[in-house]
Amino acid sequence: MKFFLSALALVAPAQGYLRFGCGTLSVQRLDPLVEPGAIPSAHLHQIVGGNAFNATMDPSRDIGNEATCTTCSFSEDFSNYWTAVLYFKAQNGSYIRVPQYPNALLGDLQGGMTIYYIQESFSTNGNQKITAFPPGFRMTVGNPGNGDGANPGLRYTCLQNVMTRFPETAEFPKAPCPAGIMAIHHFPACWDGKNLDSANHQDHMYNTVKGAFQPAGACPASHPVRVPQVAYETMWDTTKFNDKSLWPTDGSQPFVWSYEDSTGYGTHGDYLFGWKGDALQRAMDSTALLSTGLATQSVPQANACKIQPSVVEEIDGWLSSLPGRSAM
Ligand SMILES: *[C@@H]1O[C@H](CO)[C@@H](O)[C@H](O)[C@H]1NC(C)=O
Ligand SMILES: *[C@@H]1O[C@H](CO)[C@@H](O)[C@H](O)[C@H]1NC(C)=O
């Protein structure tokens, strides 16, 4: 299995899923999904996608129509995708932000993530109807407060080189990783078919994901609509922190998410649908993905898309506490 996936990643995949890079749009403390209107939100995020991203993004809006640029290589994808930010914690208690690798899928997108919309698996679309999300749709996966590592779709890979995909772990790697750490977020693939959101941003979805891009299980009657299985891969370049003499003397590992999580169990991701018109549905109805006629843009065009930050604060250099958190 390991060989199969690594080998596949080296060649352009023929069909079965959308896989594309989105560069960094913004790194700031905003969370229009969990903390709408809060400027700033509780913790720092790295955000990719369309420039309609803001502190408030009401579900009645269609950001696919409002946004005017995107950091994604598919130029009709104005969705927003975000996760927490990784920091290194030094022995003296100071923090410094871990850089993200440039996304090399299509050239050098600045930072960002690789985004997937899986129909069934890497090798087949399956025989199921995949329903694209409607405008206004949003969801989260994972819980910063009480993650337990039980969701097989929330994982880390200790990169021996940039192609490493296995093994996956539920917690942060315990030893230095020669080529960095990949954080993986798979979202649920079953929707109730009615609600754009729910109070905890998760109950309108049902998770049958088995992890590692295996085909998800059947959707239950409560959540009968099969939607694309969205996944994020974020490559954190931890390599300049690999000197073991910089690591905690108690044998623990030094990386911490921006909401102060050094186990990694609270890892979470946020998704806000924003493809223009029926572009995503057309892609999902096609059998030869990646050559569906979806519009693309160049790397310089994607990198040029930015937003004016609403929250201006120091997030780089040595910090005595994580942005928004008091010193511990
Ligand atoms: C974000 O919202 C603020 C008001 O809170 C507004 O001034 C600003 O133009 C908005 N930015 C974008 C990109 O829509
Ligand atoms: C804390 O440690 C880091 C890494 O050794 C160092 O660069 C930084 O200057 C230190 N900060 C303080 C406040 O001592």
From TrEMBL:
Keywords: Signal. The keyword Hydrolase does not apply. This is DUF1996 domain-containing protein. InterPro entries: DUF1996. It holds the Pfam family DUF1996. Residues 31-275 form the DUF1996 domain. Residues 1-16 form the signal peptide.
